[in-house]
Design a protein that fits this description.
Elements lengths: L9 H17 L10 H21 L3 H23 L1
Helix pairs in contact: 1-2, 2-3
Length: 84
C-alpha cells in the first residue's frame, strides 16, 4: 500500500518540525532583524514542507521530484540565512 497523504511522508513531518524550531528561533533574533532576516527565514522554512506537500499531492513521481528539488533549494536558502 502506497502513501495516501503527504502527511505520511517522514520528510514532510521533519520539515514541519524544522518550521516550528525556526519560528521559535527567529523570536530570539535582534530587533533590527525582525523584518528582514527573520522574515526571509520564515518564508524559506514554510516553503520546504509546502513544496513537499504540493509535489506529493500532484500524484506524479515527476512532480514530486520537481517540487522536492524546490524544497531542497529552500532548505539551502534557510541554511545560508542561519549562517548569516
Amino acid at each position: 500500500m502506497g502513501i495516501k497523504s503527504y502527511q505520511e511522508l517522514i520528510v514532510w513531518q521533519k520539515a514541519m518540525d524544522l518550521a516550528k524550531e525556526i519560528y521559535f528561533l527567529v523570536k530570539k533574533l535582534p530587533k533590527m532583524e525582525m523584518f528582514s532576516l527573520s522574515d526571509q527565514m520564515r518564508r524559506a522554512v514554510v516553503s520546504i514542507p509546502s513544496n513537499i506537500a504540493e509535489g506529493q499531492a500532484r500524484n506524479s513521481t515527476k512532480e514530486l521530484i520537481r517540487f522536492s528539488a524546490i524544497a531542497n533549494g529552500s532548505k539551502a536558502e534557510l541554511e545560508t540565512q542561519l549562517l548569516l
